[in-house]
Amino acid sequence: MVSNSSQPARIVSGMRPTGALHLGHYHGVLRNWLRLQQEEECLFFIADWHALTTHYEDAGNIAEHAHEMAIDWLAAGVNPKLSTLFVQSHVPEHAELHLLLSMITPLGWLERVPTYKDQQEKLRERDLSTYGFLGYPLLQSADILVYKATRVPVGEDQVAHVEMTREIARRFNHVFGREPDFEAMAEEAIRKMGKKQSRLYRDLRKRYQEQGDEEALEVARAVLDGQQNITLSDRERLLGYVEGSGRMILPEPEAMLTPTPKMPGLDGQKMSKSYGNTISLREKPDEVDRKIRTMPTDPARVRRSDPGDPEKCPVWPLHKVYSDERTCEWVQQGCRSAGIGCLECKKPLIDAVNAELAPIRKRAQELAAEPDHVQSVLGEGSERARDLARQTLVEVRQAMGLKYR
Ligand code: TRP
Ligand code: SF4
C-alpha cells in the first residue's frame, strides 16, 4: 500500500466514553497510545456522540463517563503536552463534515459495514434501526478526515470503518476535486516549482501513470511535501494530478492494527465490562487481591495434591501477560506436578497487577480531586483540535461550492 508520505504524520483515534477503564483498555489501547504520543502528532478524543448512536435512551451520564475516562487516560500517562486530548462534541466541525459527506455516501456502503448487521443482531434489546446508527461509520470517517489523519490505530473490528473512510475520501476528491480547468491549473502550478523540480515531478508522474510505479508516486509526494513556493491549493492539485483525478483535498488514512494480545479477563474470556470479568484501573489493592484469589482454576485440581494443566486454567493467560519467563516456568512445573497450590500460583500475579496499578491509582485519585484541571485539559485540547478542523472545513465548503465571499 502506498503511504501518504507527503502529509505530515498525524494520528487520530477515539474512544467511546464508557466510564472507568479497566486493564483491557490499558493493555489493548492506552499502552499503544503512550508509545505513539512519543513518536508522532496524536489527537485522542472522547467519542461522546458515538455513545448516543447505540445508547440514546440512557444518555444522562455521558458527560460524567467522559470525565471519568479522561481521568483514566491522564492517570495512565496520556500526556496533554504530547498529544491533543478533547471531546468530540466540543468540535462541531465533526458534525458538519459528517453532514456534508453524507451527501455523497451511497446507502449501500453503510449497510455493507460488517458492524451494522452484527451489532443489530448482538444488541437486540436496543433500538438500532435509527438513522444515527446507520450513519455511525460515516461519523467516524468525519472524525478522521476532519484532521486529515494519516494513520488510525484501531482494533480489528474497526478496520472496515477505516476502509470505508478511504473510499469516502477518494470519492470526495473525485467528485469535488475536479475543477473545470484542472489540467491547466495543475500545469501552471508545475511551472511555479522551478525548472528542476518541475522536470522531476513530470518524470515521476509519467512513471506512475505509465508503469504504475508506486515508488514514483511516493517520491512525487515527498517532492511536493518539500515545496515551499506553492500554495496549499496548488499542492492539492499536484498531489491529485500525479494520479490524474483532481485535487486531493481529503487524504486517505491508513488503519494501524494494534499488535496487542487480547487481554484475558478473570474468567478466561476477553476482559470486557459486559462479561463482568474486569479489574479496573482504579481497583483497590485488596479488591485486586480478592478478585484474583477467587478466580476459577483448572477444575481438575480439586485437592491441593491433584496435578493440573495451566492450559485449562484462566490464571495462566494472565501469567503470560504479567510474569517473566522464570515465573512462567515455575507455574508450569508446579501446576503439573502439584508442587504449588493455586493461591501460591496467584500470588505473583496479584503483586504484579498491584505494582502496575499503584502509580495509576495514585494519579487518578489526585485528578479526581481536581475536576477543573481535567476539564481545562479537555477544553484546551478541544480548542486546538478545533483550529485544525476549521481549516479543513474551509477547504471542504469551498470545494462543495459553499464559499460565501
Ligand atoms: N468507533 C470507535 C469504537 O467504537 C471509536 C471511534 C470513533 C474512533 N471515532 C473514531 C476510533 C475515529 C478511531 C478513529 O471503538
Ligand atoms: Fe491455575 Fe496456577 Fe492452579 Fe495451575 S496452579 S490450576 S495454573 S492457578
Which sequence of SSEs, written as H and E, runs from N to C? EHEHHEHHHHHEHHHHHEHHHHH
What is the name of the CATH architecture of the largest domain?
3-Layer(aba) Sandwich
The bound ligands are: tryptophan, iron/sulfur cluster
CATH homologous superfamily (4th level) name of the largest domain: HUPs
Distinctive features:
two-stranded parallel ribbon, Rossmann fold, 5 strands, Tyrosyl-Transfer RNA Synthetase, binds tryptophan, elongated, mainly alpha, disordered N terminus, 58% helix, 3 domains, binds iron/sulfur cluster, 405 residues
Q: Would you write up a description of this structure?
A:
With 405 residues, the protein is mainly alpha-helical. It has three domains: 4-177 and 251-261 and 371-399, 3-Layer(aba) Sandwich (Rossmann fold), CATH 3.40.50.620; 182-243, no CATH class; 282-368, Tyrosyl-Transfer RNA Synthetase. Helices cover 58% and strands 6% of the residues. The chain is built from 18 helices and five strands. A three-stranded parallel beta sheet has the order 1-2-3. A two-stranded parallel sheet has the order 4-5. Helix 1 links the parallel strand 1 and strand 2 (41-46). The longest helix has 29 residues, at 371-399. The two termini are 40 Å apart. It binds tryptophan and iron/sulfur cluster. Iron/sulfur cluster binds next to helix 15, helix 16 and helix 17.
What's a concise summary of this model?
This protein is mainly α.
Per-chain topology:
Blueprint: E1 10-15, H1 23-39, E2 41-46, H2 48-55, H3 62-76, E3 83-87, H4 93-102, H5 107-112, H6 114-122, H7 131-134, H8 136-145, E4 151-154, H9 159-176, H10 182-192, H11 195-211, H12 214-225, H13 232-243, E5 254-257, H14 285-293, H15 315-322, H16 325-336, H17 342-368, H18 371-399
Parallel strand pairs: 1-2, 2-3, 4-5
Helix pairs in contact: 3-17, 4-8, 4-18, 8-9, 10-13, 11-12, 12-13, 14-17, 15-17
The chain binds tryptophan and iron/sulfur cluster (SF4).
Iron/sulfur cluster is lined by residues 297-298, 301, 308, 310, 313, 315-316, 331, 335, 340, 342, 345-346.
